[in-house]
Amino acid sequence: MMILVDTNILSTFAKIGRLELLFEVFKQRILYVSPNVFHELKDARDKQYDFVELIFELLQSGKLKILPLEEDEYMLMLQLPKY
């Protein structure tokens, strides 16, 4: 089973320094984020939020991976309202 996590859950656990709990709860060795979540995290990093560095460490180690959109998913996203 593949687990896709969002910015909120990652940020919450990073702020308390307990990201490892997500892997225990979901019983997974790898978790995934969407490209949009990655961009939100990058924005937080650019704004110098310290807790985000723990999330980027997971990305660098391969324990957190960016799951790219399939072509049909991308085309569907383009049809969604911008708000």
Question: Could you characterize the architecture of this molecule?
Answer:
With 83 residues, this protein is mostly helical. Helices cover 57% and strands 7% of the residues. It has helices at residues 7-15, 20-26, 35-46, 52-61, 71-79; strands at 31-33, 64-66. Strands 1-2 form a two-stranded parallel sheet. The N and C termini lie far apart (31 Å). The model has no long low-confidence stretch (mean pLDDT 93).
Question: Assembly type of the shown chains?
Answer: single chain
What structural class is derived from the secondary structure elements?
A: mainly alpha
Strand order of the largest sheet: 1-2
Mean pLDDT: 93
Number of helices: 5
**Helix content, binned percent:** 55-70%
Total strand segments: 2
**Binned strand content:** 5-15%
Low-confidence stretches: none
Distance between the termini: 31 Å
Largest sheet: 2 strands, parallel
